[in-house]
Structures are given as C-alpha cells and as structure tokens.
Specification:
about 35% helix; alpha/beta; five-stranded parallel β-sheet
Length: about 375
C-alpha cells in the first residue's frame, strides 16, 4: 500500500514526505508516536487564545535562498527579529554579548576602554567564540573574556547541558558568540520570520497531499511489519532504532511551565535568560513571536533536565568526543541497513537548527532518493 514509511512528523520527516509525494508521485506513510504533527516545532492555541510553542520557542532564520523559497510554498510568513535579554548582576542586558552589552554592564570609562580593545582586535561584525577570546594574550581582553564567561556562559551552559563549556564540543559554545557590533538581534541571518498562522498550520500544508497518510500515536514498530516492501526513513533516535544494543546515547531534555497573566505584556523582550539565577534558563513571552494582540499574555519557563528514556523527550544531542565514539559505532550499524535512511537531529545525532534540518532533508532527497549530485 505504501512505498515509503517515514518515522517522525517534524521538519525532516515532513520535508521528505512532501518531496517524495510531490516529485516522485509515490505513496508515503508518516507515523509519529506523539498525538500531533510538527515535532518539536508544534504549536497550539491555549485557553487564553495565545499561540504557544509547546516545546520551547522556535524562531526561523536562514541564509539559504533555496530553503527560504521552499518554505514559501506552504503559507505566509511574518518578518520577525528575535531579541533576548539576560539578567547579569540584576540588570537586563542584550545577548549575544555585544558592544551595547559592554556599555550596559561596565562603568562608562571602562566600557569605552573595552570597546576600543575589541574593535582593535576583531573586525566589526565578527562573531568570536568565548573560548577563543579567553585564549587572548592581552591581559585586558583576558579579563573581559573571564567576566563574560563567568557571568553569561559558565552557569548557563551547565544548567542547559549538565556540563561546562570546555566539556562540550566547541560547536556548542560557538552558537552564542561574543558579537563585535551593536546589533541586538539574536540572529543576523538574511531571512528571519515566523509562519503567519503558526508552525502546525505550516506542517498541515506540507503534509496535505493525496499520496501522504499520517498516523499519530504510532511507532515504527507498529507498522513496519505490515509493509515489508516499503523503504523506511527514520528520524527518531538512532540508538533507539537499534534497541540501545551498544548503550544509550546521551541527550538533554526540557520541562516547561506555562503561566498566563492578565496584562498585555510582561517582559521587555521575547525571551529573558537567567545565566546564574533560578533553576530555569529562560522565560519566553510568546506574543512577541506570534504578533498577536490580547489583553492577556502567556509566559513559558524552561527547565533543562537529563533525558530519561520513556519519561521525557530527547531534545538535544550532547556533542562531545566521548559521545562521538559511541555514535560512530551506531553509524556503522546504520550503514549496514540498506533498507533504512537515518536522518534528522535525532537520526543523525546532530544539533541542527530548523533550516539545517530542512536543508539536510532536501539534500537526502536529491542525493540518496533521486540520485542527483547537485544538492544544497
């Protein structure tokens, strides 16, 4: 009945389902063990009428024209530039840490001195990983880097990952660099926007094709024996697919607490980060993201926590050298399964942004399914 079984209805699974159904005119069964589509990008309207991202804020940004053009097929987008404040020594200051942050946290004379040093050492607009800045030989830059590390990175990273920055792959700390500019936007990508009707509506359009069937509350073990001739695309955790036979890969999970207030707005920015105070890492006010107008507002508090199989969702792969050794062994098992394509953040165990997940899915479709060599 089906040519393909795609496990997971997030960005990777939905993109591949849409491409296979539309381009190849083949029949696709998309299964997801949750009771909804859109994966971690799933959003829904709460009782106050506010659209809330149920798995934490998802802000779309990309520099890729092909990825941006692809998404335009599935609905309108609202321009949106995300800004975040962090509480440092009782002050709300812009992050990523930039020249405006320098002025906000230091006395005027010292701020001017640090600004001059940064502009002399780095190019304007440069994004400098904090661990790189900490290796500078200039004593004043080392002092500044140590301040930034202690106040913004060290404790926040430990809360988020259960590890300190130097214990993680440099790719993690590089995601939130020190920015040598006065641009308070959290991202500087060419395209920054939010789906006008929300992510779930976007996914509904992606999966609205006569060749696509969606089954929710369904795992791959529930269906794969029913359609033995179908090829499988697996976007769930790669270690789970193999029954954890080599041991579980580590992930971090999240817990969310939603609070609705009878005020129009409660925060000075969409997200407030708490590098040192409180058990939660950030509070997001979703009206900033959705552009809705209402006399009420909804805040979501985000608590990182260890992932426990069967009890919470695996959100973030934990990139470390030790983890890579185990992952390589699972990738060897995956290589032997010619009937299964493993992809996506969990299927490949990669810390993808949304646009990266879409780009990787489009590349899988072009290269591995269509046999093309010219890919994104």
């Amino acid at each position: 009945m089906f040519d393909w079984i795609i496990v997971g209805a997030g960005f990777t699974g939905a993109t591949l389902a849409e491409r296979i159904a539309s381009v190849r005119n083949e029949r696709v069964l998309v299964v997801d063990r949750r009771n909804h589509i859109a994966g971690n990008a799933h959003d829904a309207t709460n009782e106050a009428g506010i659209i809330v991202h149920k798995y934490g804020p998802h802000i779309f940004h990309t520099n890729s024209q092909p990825i941006w053009d692809y998404l335009q097929r599935f609905g309108q987008w609202r321009p949106y530039f995300h800004e975040i404040l962090a509480v440092i020594d009782g002050k709300e200051v812009p992050i990523p840490f930039n020249l405006n942050t320098v002025e906000a946290v230091f006395p005027p004379d010292l701020a001017r001195r640090y600004t001059r040093l940064l502009l002399e050492r780095y190019a304007f607009g440069e994004r400098v990983p904090i661990l790189k800045m900490m290796n500078e030989t200039d004593p004043d830059l080392k002092t500044l880097a140590a301040f930034i590390y202690e106040k913004m990175f060290r404790n926040y990273t430990f809360k988020q990952w259960g590890l300190y920055p130097e214990q993680l792959s440099p790719s993690v700390t590089a995601r939130v660099p020190v920015v040598i500019s006065r641009d308070n936007r959290y991202f500087q990508d060419r395209y920054q926007a939010m789906p006008a009707e929300g992510y779930t509506a976007l996914f509904e359009r992606m999966l609205d094709h006569p060749n696509i069937t969606v089954m929710l509350n369904t795992g791959h073990v529930d269906v794969r024996h029913k359609y033995p001739s179908a090829r499988t695309i697996f976007t769930g955790p790669i270690d789970e697919f193999f029954g954890y036979r080599l041991g579980p890969l580590p992930y971090r999970s999240l817990r969310f607490v939603e609070r609705t207030l009878d005020v129009e707005t409660a925060q000075a920015a969409a997200s407030i980060n708490f590098p040192s105070d409180h058990d939660y890492t950030r509070i997001t006010e979703f009206k900033y993201l959705t552009g809705q107008r209402s006399a009420r507002t909804t805040l979501v508090y985000e608590y990182p926590q260890p992932h426990v199989t069967g009890e919470n969702e695996p959100y973030y792969p934990i990139p470390r050298d030790e983890t890579q050794i185990l992952l390589n062994r699972y990738l060897e098992l995956a290589e032997d399964r010619k009937d299964v394509i493993f992809c996506g953040r969990l299927g490949e165990y990669k810390y993808y942004n949304m646009d990266q997940a879409i780009g990787a899915a489009l590349a899988v479709f072009s290269k591995r399914i269509m046999g093309e060599t010219d890919v994104l």
